[in-house]
Every structure is written in C-alpha cells, then in structure tokens.
Specification:
By secondary structure, the protein is an alpha+beta fold. It contains six helices and 20 strands.
Length: about 575
C-alpha cells in the first residue's frame, strides 16, 4: 500500500471517529429504557475502554517499531558514513601507494563484493520493513473498521469521544511527523545509495585502470625475466666453456704428470741398467786382475826355477839395455802424433763451433714499445700492420712503424672467443679459440668468422700456416698435426717434434718450422722425408716471450717488460740466418 493510500485511510478514519460525517438521531429515548441504556452504555464503555487500551497498546507498539526503524536508519546512516570514510581512505591509498593497491587489488574486490552484499541485505531489510509496515497498516485498517462498527454502537457517548478525538488528533499529528521523518530518512538513504553506486562505478573504472597498469608491469617483469634468462643462459654457456677449458688443462696436467712419471721410471730403469753394467764391468776387471796376478805369479815361479838351475834366458825376455837412437826416434814420433792429434781436436772443435754458430738464428734489437694489452697470446705481421691477440680484448692492429693502434676487432656479436694463438693466411687470421676448442679464421676488416675447425686434441697449442695447410700442436699427445687442404676434413698427418713438450708459439718461415716453448727456447726444424729434423736450439733471451713472428729479415716478439716491471713490450729485431 502506498503512503498516499495510508494517509487517505487515516483521514477517513479520523473523520469517522470525530463524527464530522455522522448525523445523530434526534428522537429521545423512552424513559423506561433509560436504565437499560445506562447498563448498555456502561457495557459499551467498558468494551470501548478495553478496545481503547488495545488500540493504545497497538499504537505504542507501532511507535516502538517506528523508533526501532529510526534507530536502524541512524545505524545505516552511520554505517554509510563509515563506508564513505573507508572509500576515502582507500582512494588516498590508491593515490599514494599504487603498487600496494595493485597487490591488494584482490582484497579490495572482495571487500567491495562484501559491501555490495551488505548494502543488498540492508535494502532487502528496508523493503521487508516497509512491507511489514504495509501489512500492519492493513491490519490496523481492519481494526479501525471494527472500531467503526463499535463506534456506530457507541455514538451516544459524544462527550467522551470529543476528548478521545483530541487525543487521537495529537497521536495522528505525531504519527504524521514520524511518517514524514521516515520518508525523509528513506529518501536520504536512497540518495546516499545512489551516490555510493556512482562512487562504486568510479572505483570500478579506477580498478580497470589499475588492472591495465598491472598488466603493463607484468609485461615489463616478463620481459625482464626473459632478458635475465637469456643472460643467465649466456653465463651458463660461458661457465661450461670455462669449465671445459679447466677440464682440458686438468687432463693436460694429468698427461704431463703421466709423461713425467713414465720418463722418471724410464730414467730409473736406465740408471739401474747402467749400475748393473758397471757392476758387471767391475766384476770383469776384477777377474782380469786376478788372472793377471795368477799369470804373473806363474811367470815369477818359472823365472826362479830357471835362475836356480842356471839356465840363460833368451834375449826376448832379457835385454842388456834400450837403444838410445831408437828411444829418441820413438819419442819424436810420439810427440808429432800427439801434436797432430791435438791440432785435429782443436780444428774439429772450432769447426763444430762455427757450424753451431751458423745453425742458430742471429737477431739484434732495433725498436721496442710497450703495449696496452694485459694478456697478449698471439702475434702476426701482415701488410696491414702488426696483429696482436689478447685473451680478453680480442684482436688489435698496430702500425708497424710507430706501434700506434689502428683498430680493434672484438669477439663477434653473440659469441665468446678467447684467442690463444694467431697465424696469418691469405684470406684471414687463424685464431686458436680456447673457449670452444676450435681454430677460427677471422676476416681482416671486421673480425667476422668465416671458417671454423675443431682442435685435434683437448690441449691445443699454437697455430701455423705454411701457405697451403694449417698446422696445430696438442700438449696431451705431444704431436704436431697437419690439416688437409680442406681443414674441416680433419688432420691428414701427425709428426713428432724432438725436445718439445709444450708450445707458446710456432710459425712456418722460409720452409722451416720455428717453435717457442714454455722454457723460452727457440728451435728450428726442417721437414725431410716425413720427419722433422732439428736444425738449431737456443735460448730466446733474458725476458720471457709470449709470442714471436718472422717477417723476412725482421723478428717480432711480445716479451715481458722485465722481472720487476709489469706489462708487455712489442719488440722488433733484425734477423740473420745461414741455412
């Protein structure tokens, strides 16, 4: 029932109660019925008093319900104020702490759903209260109809009804005021609910913006994670390569240790054989001395026997004395022979010294300059200049006259290259890559890798190009390997180098193989009938060299600056060889 119908029914009720539309009967009552009427009136008054008390209690209950409804509306209003304050704090937190809002987005959604459910419950409760009020008003209308029937029977109590009319008018005014307050409270509640719904829509729009920002942040985090995974993969590959190099070095050390152990055992066996031969020789000399003493004793006994019997010995055994001329001639011949032998020995020693001097390489320092590379590992000289390889910085080209840096060639993009040796060919620089155990041919202009070849063993050292073939040395096997015309097809032959166990650098020059080992010894070999014949062996110099290069009449070398000074120097020597 609408509020207008309720007002209309109440107005009709009060009209009926007040008697505005009631016309009393003008005929007086008979005198004999007065006593009966008085009893009836008393009965009706008592019934009306009971009805009035019931009606008042009903109105008091309605007033209590209205007060409860007002208290509930006040609580709702306070709760709405708290909700507004909560949303204001949430808005401030969203402005000040965007990341915190992003992390607490799920909690905010849950809280909004809870508030929405609470508001739904409150709206449902208000609707139930309104429906209950309507039902109670309908029941009140029914009671009023019953009272109207009783009022028709009690019309005769006009004076009493006038007082009751004033009381009911006051009650009606209070009820109307309460109803107006209730209407105003409901309207305010609806306005606040509408405003809160609008705020919720605004909050949802902000939440969508926050979700877009969160997606953007998630994309950035995903890209950062991808970059980190790629970088971690590169570091893992670098670690695996370094570990492979360490494993190679460990195997190389194990091979060297095994080789030293075998050499030591061979030397021990050789010494034991020499000792056994010495003991056998000593035993033989002792037997000879024993037999000689026995023979001397026998000869002495024979001579004694001849002396005792008076027998004259032949001139073979007994001589009166040496011939003086013969002795002098023999002495002169012996002296001439000794002088000739001494001269022959001196001439052979001089000839050997001359041969040894001519067999060695003779070089004299011409120029030197310090280099700014912390770990140089290779050297090659071409028409462009002097190429230097560094373990960390890659390849560097320097001018051959003033040693100025012309350009740097770092490792190719996306690859890790650790040069350990260097050799020049017609189409590029052959570089020993210790990171991946391979030989890589790099272009002179940009350092781009044009060809790669796997190393022959786990401990590769040195690189040399003879104009047609690539040569490599492996410390684990102690052999030098010759690659075929197509290096990718692998090694075509192996050779043994006398006296070489490890190499720092090697090069083919003028048909000779030049090597520099870890003991700073420079050797030259000639390949004859499939065997390397050593031509010369000499100490390179006082300072330890890291690499060398022979260029016609010049010898280039990378040497340490000295025992006390740090760094390295690039030196150029004038070179002279006789074979």
């Amino acid at each position: 029932m609408e509020s207008k119908d309720i007002d209309r029914h109440l107005n009709d009720l009060w009209k009926k109660v007040s008697g505005d539309d009631y016309v009393p009967d003008a005929s007086p009552l008979p005198s004999d019925m007065r006593q009966a009427n008085l009893d009836t009136m008393r009965f009706l008054r008592e019934n009306f008093s009971k009805a009035e008390s019931d009606w008042k209690s009903l109105l008091a209950a309605k007033d209590a319900q209205l007060r409860d409804l007002t208290a509930q509306l006040e609580d709702t209003r306070a709760h709405l104020g708290e909700v507004k304050q909560h949303y204001q704090e949430a808005r401030e937190k969203m402005l000040n702490e965007e990341m915190a809002t992003a992390l607490n987005l799920e909690d905010s959604k849950k809280l909004l759903d809870t508030q929405k459910k609470n508001h739904g419950r409150e709206v449902t409760l208000l609707k139930e209260i309104l429906e209950r009020t309507k039902v109670e008003l309908v029941s009140l209308q029914e009671r009023i109809d019953a009272l109207r029937m009783e009022r028709d029977e009690a019309r005769k109590r006009g004076d009493v009804f006038t007082v009751e009319k004033a009381d009911l008018a006051d009650a009606k005014a209070g009820l109307e005021a309460k109803m107006a307050d209730s209407k105003e409270a409901v309207e305010r509640t609806l306005a606040e609910l509408l405003a809160e719904r609008k705020n919720r829509r605004d909050d949802q729009a902000r939440l969508k913006d926050q979700e877009a920002q969160i997606k953007d942040l998630a994309g950035r985090l995903e890209s950062a994670k991808t970059n980190w995974d790629a970088e971690r993969t590169q570091w893992r590959e670098l670690w695996d390569r370094e570990r492979s190099v360490w494993e190679t070095h460990r195997q190389e050390f194990a091979v060297w240790e095994e080789r030293l152990r075998s050499e030591r055992e061979a030397w021990t066996m050789k010494m034991r054989e020499q000792e056994s031969k010495g003991v056998e020789n000593a035993a033989g000399i002792a037997n000879i001395l024993k037999e000689s003493s026995q023979w001397t004793e026998k000869v002495t006994q024979v001579l004694k026997l001849y002396a005792l019997k008076g027998v004259e010995l032949p001139s073979v055994f007994v001589s009166a004395g040496p011939d003086t001329a013969f002795v002098r001639a023999r002495t002169s011949v012996s002296r001439a022979l000794a002088l000739g032998l001494a001269g022959l020995l001196l001439m052979s020693g001089a000839a050997w010294q001359v041969y040894a001097w001519r067999a060695k390489a003779h070089y004299k320092l011409v120029a030197s300059a310090p280099i700014d590379l912390p770990n140089p590992s290779g050297l090659a000289v071409t028409k462009d200049g002097v190429w230097l390889a560094d373990w960390n910085r890659g390849l560097a080209l320097k001018d051959a006259k003033d040693f100025a840096t012309l350009r740097l060639l770092p490792a190719p993009a996306g690859e890790i290259l650790r040069p350990g040796a260097l050799s020049a060919s017609g189409s590029g620089l052959w570089t020993l890559d210790m990171a991946q155990l391979r030989y890589a041919r790099q272009d002179y202009k940009d350092g781009k890798i044009t060809e790669t070849v796997r190393t022959p063993g786990p401990a590769p050292q040195g690189a040399a190009w003879d104009g047609y073939n690539l040569w490599a040395f492996d410390a684990s096997s102690g052999l030098i390997y010759k690659y075929a015309l197509d290096p990718k097809s692998g090694a075509s032959a192996t050779y043994q180098l006398d006296g070489v166990r490890n190499l720092l650098c090697m090069q083919w020059a003028n048909g000779r193989l030049w090597t520099l080992d870890g003991n700073n010894v420079l050797r030259r070999y000639a390949l004859e009938d499939g065997v390397f014949k050593k031509l010369s062996s000499q100490a390179f110099g006082r300072n330890k060299a890291a690499a060398f290069w022979v260029d016609g009449a010049s010898l280039w070398a990378v040497e340490k600056a000295g025992e006390l000074a740090g760094g390295f120097e690039l030196k150029r020597y004038s070179l002279k060889t006789y074979n």
